[in-house]
Amino acid sequence: MATKKDSRVEVKKTYKLFINGAFPRSESGRVFEVTAKNGDFIANPALASRKDLRDAVTAARAAQSGWSKATAYNRGQILYRIAEMLEGRADQFESEIALTSQITSAKAKALVSEAIDRWVWYAGWSDKLQAVSGATNPVSGPFFNFSISEPQGVVAIASSDSFLEFIDAIAAAVVSGNTSVVLVPGSLAVPAMSFAEVLATSDLPAGVINILTGSLDELAPWAASHMDIDGFDISGVAKKKHGALKEAGAENLKRIHSFGSGKTPARILAFMESKTVWHSVGV
Amino acid sequence: MTFEYAPAPESRSIVSIKPKYGHFINGSFVAGKKHFPTINPATEEILSHIALGGVSDVDKAVMAAQKAYTKTWSKLSGKERGKYLYRIARILQERAREFAVLETLDNGKPIRETRDIDIPLVAAHFFYHAGWADKLDYAGLGHSPKAYGVAGQIIPWNFPLLMLAWKVAPALATGNTVVLKPAETTSLTALLFAEVCQQAELPDGVVNIVTGDGSTGSAIVNHPGIHKIAFTGSTEVGKKIARAIASTDKKATLELGGKGANIVFDDAPVDETVEGIVNGIFFNQGHVCCAGSRLIVQESIAEEIIEKLKVRMAKIRVGDPLDKNTDLGAINSKEQLIKIKELSAIGDAEGATRWSPQCNLSDKGFWFAPTIFTGVTQANRIAQEEIFGPVLSVLTFRTPQEAMDKANNTPFGLSAGVWSEKGSRIFWASQHLKAGVIWANTFNKFDPASPFGGYKESGWGREGGKHGLAAYLKNGKETGAK
Amino acid sequence: MSFYGLVDGSEKSLIQFLDQLSGVDQVGAEARAAMLATRSIKTTSKKWAIETAISMVDLTTLEGADTPGKVRALCSKAVRPDPTDPTVPSVGAICVYNDMVAIARTHLDAIGGKHVPVAAVSTAFPSGRASMEVKIQDTQDAIDAGAAEIDMVIDRGAFLAGKYGLVFDEIVKIREVCGDKAHLKVIFETGELVTYDNVRKASYLAMLAGADFIKTSTGKVAPAATPPVVLVMLEAVRDFYSITQRRIGVKPAGGIRTTKDAIKQLVLVNETAGPEWLTPELFRIGASALLNDLLMQRMKMSDGYYASPNYVTID
User: Fold this and answer.
1) Per-residue confidence at C315, pLDDT binned at 50, 70, 90?
2) What whole-number distance in Å separates Cα of residue C180 and Cα of residue B254?
3) CB pair distance less than 8 Å for B441 and C28
4) Is B166 near chain A, with CB under 8 Å?
5) 8 A C-beta contact, residue C219 and residue C62
6) What is the reported pLDDT for B1?
7) Contact A45, A14 (CB under 8 A)
8) C214 forms bridges with which residues in the sheet?
9) How many Å from the N-terminal Cα to the C-terminal Cα in chain C?
10) Chain A contact for B449, CB < 8 A?
11) H-type helices in C37-163, by residue range?
12) What backbone torsions phi and psi does residue A194 show, to the nearest 5 degrees?
């Protein structure tokens, strides 16, 4: 693209991965090209490898205990803070999405507003999940019996290339106290890494959300077979490939789910486990 | 060798109190006609003048609330309503210190408590309820539950801003608009809250604040435009309200008085129990409806507990509420101080043994030393009547069942405490106690997610948690009126 | 040995005593400690607290790399913490390994530090894993070299395995070795005991066995002297005094790095055991980096502006 002699030269961004609160390049050194709708070069985001995935899972596992032990109120506040940061950068997300995807500017604007509001919806679930999914159970006998829902642990996400679905999957996974490793397809790489920058400025503890840009075809099978991943949201993977992922996941009985668009607390509960406790009652 | 703490005053320069206030109606401050002074109970200094709302002021407020409901608030999705509440929560967090200092000046409670407990809980209540606004379908209250419209809310002086949060947050989250009357002696933080509503750009008329006295409250209760009433205050006034609405279709929730039993078994964790007893009755100067105002202790350890309690009470720092090291602040008003003194004198007359640690009480302001009465029995008035001050009545029990019987032997039923290291015993006790809130190995713990409210004459309905939403929604579980 | 007339020296008697102790509620204990941490100590009371804290520091070096040079430097610092200000009090004691005791004592005496005692860690510090013979010899060596204070570790393995009699007997023996030449501090290593119930048990066990001081940690294991742990120990010495009329000292060690931390400890003492314990005779703080922070805070209080590490000596 020709530029006028006296127009300002932009400082272009380097796009790396987001692992454990930091921005490393792929250990493989690989990158891939992202272009605008009109074919113009935009960036060379990192092409994540299975070793990056391995490192991301390690980070997510290390962060999980602390994140789940935070109070529900605290998690809700951190997620709301992320929404505040998103809102402040809404324009940037709109232009990045319009630039690198197939949708118009106007649609991108509506999408970003929806995504921010969707994130806020999830933030508000943090301290209400137990009221809705827990119970005290009237067993026959002198026992106090209650059921509570707990996060499963580390949840991998294979995201579609819709920013809204990307947001949905991540929020649903982490609001309850899971930590996550998110695989992001190439066409969403640029806004996904801006999202990583938002996370880095939102008091989110390192390792709670890790973002790997690259090829779902290459990385999803590695996630599916990884024995230290507890749940896997494969909404971004084509249906015909689900079978193979589920077979691989059977080795550690991974909880594997996929969802359509639209919001439901079922998406959150899908990555939680229910625990029931009996306590004798007597003097 | 003695470690005297030097004065550590919190600065009051962060607040700016106007000499006179009006009401907050339809998004703006409007002048009042008559005014009365509001004072700092620690010094008796006049802080400001508050408007005495009359029937016409209440009417204007209700009209504004109705218009806001019909034209604006009911047309907003829960998603958008929630975002207003989130804004309010965040602004409250930003201005937390200012609110804490103002609350301490107006109420007399220690800055440590407003700073560390009241104000953080206020923000938490708005934050929690913001998240319910677009999730009401999941609250177990039926599909698409509907708001009432305008809620009339009357709050007490013991936790002024916190009681405002307990009322306003769920009302707004469920889609109602409000007309709220703060207590006479503590209106300042409610009026400052109106500024927060403005900063949050809350649509005009969604929150209206009319200050005044009992007559203002009656005007709200009796206004035909209000179908839902929420009241926190004395049982006596609660009953008046119940009578007033009996032949109408108005609904009411009532948070009234209590005479909470703090029950200590012989296997209680002793040091933490003593802390819990102190917290139960001396927190907030005992001006707490759910205070643990009766210590019911197992006879076999009564002496040990009382001894330790006295040693601990001697460490309570009574003094300037703005001093960060003060534990016990001023009694909220002259009237309340008189009540406390009267009932304490009755305790003496009934033959109980009074004890207080040595305290240097200022002669300006309203002060009462932390006090315990031992040798109290069920038949004493100080075991039955709510004193609402830093006065603990101590009774004993022999068997677990006796403890339950004594704890339940009261027209009240708001709270109870159970201290034991045996889990089964705790659950057994919680099954037997007729109290809306039971604390085991802790006391005076509040959370927006945890429902609060009483059995029997301690009131109707619950506030907080999923349960608290019901009162503000038409197809929700209805309490109080037909 | 009379053990205050409360136990007869047998494990059975000891266990009976420990079993009737009240439990500690974790949430309640931590809440009490957290509330006391909100005390705001300013102006005159802060000045007093800093001076007092300095005089309570057991200035410590317990490294494999300790040399006579290092120990001598520490001794100078202990006697005159701020070379530019003679009004700064000396610390409470010097704390070293037993083979450094003689060097410390000699140097202290040479520089006008006769009033600063030398404390030696003992009984196979920090692990406590050695035979009784070795532990006794360890202690004897230190006393012979001039240690006036012995900081011994308990056998945590025995404690956690429920062998309370063994733990008790070891303390009794070491107390005998100390005789009237040295006072005995008993280190629990609370980070390994984990529960507050265990800390309370260990406190009573050690006091009955003859401890003069009970101490939280070796400083080699985290968590060390957390406020709730110190709270529980202060409650124990307070209650022990009301039964026996004997005041036992408390020494938190490890993790107390700033003046704020130190002042929080003094507040805990003040409002739990009581002001009688606010003296180096009954309260010490095991620390190394803390001293410089106390000095910098002391400077700020007298100068009125914030200090810099450039103005305090590194040792």
Assistant:
1) confident
2) 69
3) yes
4) no
5) yes
6) 62
7) no
8) C186, C250
9) 43
10) yes
11) 43-56, 68-79, 101-110, 132-144, 156-160
12) -65, -35
